[in-house]
Design goal:
single chain; alpha/beta; 8 helices; 5 strands; binds adenosine-5'-triphosphate; binds magnesium ion
């Protein structure tokens, strides 16, 4: 919420619809959510590469990367996690306005925070993807050694260990990363985008 009454929106002379027309695809947020190690970053990187090769204009926002800069003043308390997601939601909205397919990879453990981002965007501009994977498998993958640190007490409030994760109630796409390969996951998402007219014609 703005703290100033003295600001006025100034319209651009180029619209989102015109940008989408030029790009030959719609712009949308593809929002990955899931436990640490469930595969959000891995699949989002592969998805972006595949879309790029199909001339799609994309940008990827990833948890650790955003925390290096824009959100480097935020920690992992529930309030900071909420603010982290709120800012990313606002940045995603700008990127959708810029005509990009915006791919985000954040644990984003709270349903309410994800719903706020959904509500910030136009209808059909938010695709929630749940990378479903058991805690046991995520912990055995432990690609960044974080579960080990959480178990040793070196990290407090780690999602799945001593902080909650709320699985999406109604995601557009579920990917079971214990069963699917990275390649089939990417194909599943691209099939969804094509079936729902995000790519190519019918803009
Ligand atoms: N089917 C699969 N899909 C995605 N990742 C897989 C799959 N099978 C194995 N993996 C492995 O699981 C790990 C997933 O790690 P990744 O960093 O993508 O998770 P993340 O969800 O982004 O976690 P974090 O929230 O900590 O950033 C990688 O080491 C990846 O190679
Ligand atoms: Mg990641």
């Amino acid at each position: 919420m703005s703290t100033s009454n003295h600001i006025t929106w100034h319209e651009s002379a180029v619209t989102k619809a015109e940008r989408q027309q030029r790009n030959q695809h719609r712009s949308v947020v593809i929002w990955f959510t899931g436990l640490s190690g469930s595969g959000k970053s891995t699949i989002s990187v592969a998805l972006e590469k595949a879309l790029y090769q199909q001339q799609v204009h994309t940008y990827r926002l990833d948890g650790d990367n955003v925390r290096h800069g824009l959100n480097n003043n935020l920690g992992f308390s529930p309030e900071d996690r909420k603010e982290n997601i709120r800012r990313i939601g606002e940045v995603s909205k700008l990127m959708v306005d810029a005509g990009l397919i915006t791919i985000t990879a954040f644990i984003s453990p709270y349903q309410a925070d994800r719903d706020e981002v959904r509500n910030l965007l136009d209808d059909q501009a938010f695709i929630e993807i749940y990378t479903s994977c058991s805690l046991a498998t995520c912990e055995s993958r432990d690609p960044k050694g974080l579960y080990q640190k959480a178990r040793n007490g070196e990290i407090k409030g780690f999602t799945g260990i001593n902080a909650p994760y709320e699985a999406p109630k109604n995601p557009e796409i579920i990917i079971d990363t214990e069963q699917e390969t990275i390649e089939t996951a990417v194909n599943q998402i691209i099939d969804y985008l094509k079936a729902h007219d995000y790519l190519g014609v019918n803009l």
